[in-house]
């Protein structure tokens, strides 16, 4: 009787995603991004990065010679690291309720891949390979600059030394690199990504999760861009401390919308897309921007069901047990005749997918919705998500950088009520009203 | 400045160009893709070159398709021109957004000319090439759809088969598949052997990305889809819409009968899906098979009208009631949903239905109408009035280019919940006119 749809929970076998490719082909970037996405949609996923295992085993990195194919001693260490990583995968699946493990390593030889396939077969795991192939020297150089030069391996080197050594490291791998083969590997399940996504080869997708992974990988890109997140301007219901509803902006809300328009113009953003929900307050906010906007029903605020338009005091009075249950598990709790944060994530998934496809976007939305989007972008857990701070009248500018996202908070200096309610100390259904209402924000 | 209430998928119209030898599934893919795109709200139409050819020339034999048949070549080129002219009309005058050019398009010359044509008109082009070298699959395709084609009306099966195989040979002589190197700037998907493998190149926008995802999820393995509503509920008995009530005694009887019916079908690996509402779950409980609950399968949210009878809706919201009758597909209940919203929320269900094999979906009236409209290619106007009575299972089996439907009424009485569109949909109509078509209830 679970509330999470279908195929994920009914997947019997765990899935091992195996990255394949020379260094600096984006394997770690893809591994981290894919894990972030899968965890957000509710599929417990973890990355097992072989470089980290190697760094733990060989405390200090000297130079590329470690990676020479004739370096027997190093080969032993590297094989042992791979074995340890796979042992940890087994623990993750069997004892930690993991469903997907991403084995982030070069896996560039047939021999290595065959041994992984046997290992998985023996354990009953499904295997899906993700191979990244890139021969564009500019892209490689860019990758090296962005993430390699600052890697722990090169902590005491200057940029040029690091660059030169890394290029020699790549050469070591090239000598023994055998890509997945159209003929020989025709029974394996995989996706080959060519040149950061201009082209894909997809072979033998086995199930739903692999199909979703393929769809996701085919929609992401690395073109520089920024995502702007903002709530609607302060609304009439916000002023009264009431949740939900479909009210208009307050006078201060209108001021914010104008200020937001000014801010956006000042950013000189190329081809900005603006998205709103279907609710008056986001539409009124977007109206002030003077830019065309698209309305998404999926961006509507969480449906509070029987609690729509109530104040927290009303909720405590009329539904004290529900109020406590919500505090016990704010992510999974579903308002009677309403939604949960978990439901919200599911309805926002197509928005996230389109956000990945797009470039510069401003999303004008709502508190719970913004928390969900932010959790996806900043890799926050389900426990953290419902308590993320998303105040009114503040724009967040998120810019992908290296493996993550840089966040700039821009408060546009228009006063607004606070709508953030922290988790109170006592979440027991037996608590008294003062304890329940301890953390509610002020309102008129 | 509001652009649209549904996110825009594309600004320029898109021309999907099928590529492949005869009997490679091009028409199957064209029709299925078109059905899907229309259902999700993207106006799409197929332009099948064979139909254009049949209009100007009655088919004699494969000789028409010989590459050295100059006269025939002229006719075929003219047909292609006419088809593309109709594409222009579809885009510029009929609000079309996607056109599927269903023809072999097997030569580089033909494809180059289509790309120029599209560039000149400002259309995006996306190629879908189907490559198959499995003789069993080809033979199956020919038996399924070619032997019964209008071209072979007066032939027996063996004659038709022999002629068609010679037809394929004619095309093979000049077939040049999309090339990895030479065509690296074109946008396309190559489908190998009915989907074991795909090559995707230069996807340009959202609609192409959705098309690729859809094509990668469909399959041709024989299977059946069973659709049923929950058993009659207590609210059904009272003529009330929505809510989350339990089954009536007759509803429980139906669930038991459904279980028996399902067992008798001896269905291999049947998946059962329900919504999160009591009445579908209670129905599935009687089946004795594991089931999955999908929130997306919940009945349409009637907002302020939840749990009302039609009489109460007329009493309390007469104007809304009339507006709904005016445009039942797009009308959204205040604080509720429209059929159009329902289709959007059901899209992931449809996608998973495509991936699966034998499935029984236990759902609700409006939801079932949406799923049925997708499976049977019904328009947005027909959809909200499709008949989905209680206590009747539908068995849908893909066959040739469509779906065979079997209605299985399990002989347990239930109220009727189907309300036809009344004659007068004006907001000024009086109550009797509004309530003329409501079904009986207790």
Automatic annotation (TrEMBL), chain A:
Keyword Hydrolase attached: yes
Annotated ranges, domain 6-phosphofructo-2-kinase: 10-224
PROSITE patterns per record: PG_MUTASE
GO molecular-function term, one example from the UniProt record: ATP binding
Alphabetically ordered keywords of this record: ATP-binding, Hydrolase, Kinase, Multifunctional enzyme, Nucleotide-binding, Phosphoprotein, Transferase
Transmembrane region(s): none
Catalytic residues (UniProt): 232 (tele-phosphohistidine intermediate), 301 (proton donor/acceptor)
Any one GO biological process: fructose 2,6-bisphosphate metabolic process
UniProt GO cellular component terms: 6-phosphofructo-2-kinase/fructose-2,6-biphosphatase complex
Residues binding substrate: 231-238, 281
Assembly and interaction partners: Homodimer.
Record function comment: Synthesis and degradation of fructose 2,6-bisphosphate.
Family according to the record: In the C-terminal section; belongs to the phosphoglycerate mutase family.
Protein name per UniProt: 6-phosphofructo-2-kinase/fructose-2,6-biphosphatase 1
Source organism of this protein record: Oncorhynchus mykiss
Organism ancestry: Eukaryota, Metazoa, Chordata, Craniata, Vertebrata
TrEMBL record, chain B:
GO biological process annotation, one example: fructose metabolic process
Entry keywords, A to Z: ATP-binding, Hydrolase, Kinase, Multifunctional enzyme, Nucleotide-binding, Phosphoprotein, Transferase
Domain annotation 6-phosphofructo-2-kinase: ranges: 4-222
Annotated residues for binding of substrate: 229-236, 279
Domain of life: Eukaryota
Matching PROSITE patterns: PG_MUTASE
Cellular component, GO, one term: 6-phosphofructo-2-kinase/fructose-2,6-biphosphatase complex
Molecular function GO labels: 6-phosphofructo-2-kinase activity; ATP binding; fructose-2,6-bisphosphate 2-phosphatase activity
Active site, per annotation: 230 (tele-phosphohistidine intermediate), 299 (proton donor/acceptor)
Keyword Cell membrane: no
Function: Synthesis and degradation of fructose 2,6-bisphosphate.
Known partners and oligomeric status: Homodimer.
Protein name: 6-phosphofructo-2-kinase/fructose-2,6-biphosphatase 1
Lineage, broadest ranks: Eukaryota, Metazoa, Chordata, Craniata, Vertebrata
């Amino acid at each position: 009787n679970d509330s999470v749809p279908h195929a994920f929970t009914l997947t019997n076998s765990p899935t091992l995603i195996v990255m394949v490719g020379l260094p600096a082909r984006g394997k770690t970037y893809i591994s981290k991004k894919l894990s972030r996405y899968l965890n957000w949609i509710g599929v417990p996923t973890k990355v097992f990065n072989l470089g980290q295992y190697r760094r733990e085993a060989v405390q200090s990195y000297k130079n590329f010679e470690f990676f020479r194919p004739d370096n027997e001693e190093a080969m032993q260490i590297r094989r042992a690291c791979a074995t340890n990583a796979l042992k940890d995968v087994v623990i993750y699946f069997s004892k930690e309720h993991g469903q997907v493990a991403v084995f982030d390593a070069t896996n560039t030889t047939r021999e290595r891949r065959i041994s992984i396939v046997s290992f998985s077969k023996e354990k009953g795991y499904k295997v899906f390979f993700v191979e990244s192939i890139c021969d564009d020297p500019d892209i490689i150089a860019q990758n090296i600059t962005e993430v390699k030069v600052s890697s722990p391996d090169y902590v005491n080197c200057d940029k040029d030394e690091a660059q030169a050594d890394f290029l020699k490291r790549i050469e070591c791998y090239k000598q023994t690199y055998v890509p997945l083969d159209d003929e020989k590997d025709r029974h394996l399940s995989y996706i080959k990504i060519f040149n950061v996504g201009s082209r894909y080869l997809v072979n033998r997708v086995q199930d739903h999760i692999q199909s979703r992974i393929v769809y996701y990988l085919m929609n992401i890109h690395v073109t520089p861009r920024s995502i702007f997140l903002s709530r609607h301007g302060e609304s009439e219901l916000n002023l009264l401390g009431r949740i939900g509803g479909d009210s208009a902006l307050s006078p201060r809300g209108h001021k914010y919308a104008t200020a937001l328009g000014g801010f956006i113009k000042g950013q000189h953003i190329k081809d900005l897309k603006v998205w709103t929900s279907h609710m008056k307050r986001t539409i009124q906010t977007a109206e002030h921007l003077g830019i065309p906007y698209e309305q998404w029903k999926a961006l509507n605020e969480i449906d509070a069901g029987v609690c729509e338009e109530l104040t927290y005091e009303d909720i405590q009075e009329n539904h004290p047990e529900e109020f406590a249950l919500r505090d016990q598990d704010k992510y999974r709790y579903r308002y009677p005749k309403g939604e949960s944060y978990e439901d919200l994530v599911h309805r926002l998934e197509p928005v996230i997918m389109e956000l990945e496809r797009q470039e510069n976007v401003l999303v004008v939305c709502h508190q719970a919705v913004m928390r969900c989007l932010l959790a996806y972008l900043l890799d926050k857990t389900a426990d953290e998500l419902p308590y993320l701070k998303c105040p009114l009248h503040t724009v967040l500018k998120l810019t992908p950088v290296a493996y993550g996202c840089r966040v700039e908070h821009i408060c546009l200096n228009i006063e607004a009520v606070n709508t953030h309610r922290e988790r109170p100390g006592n979440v027991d259904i037996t608590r008294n009203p003062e304890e329940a209402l301890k953390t509610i924000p002020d309102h008129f």
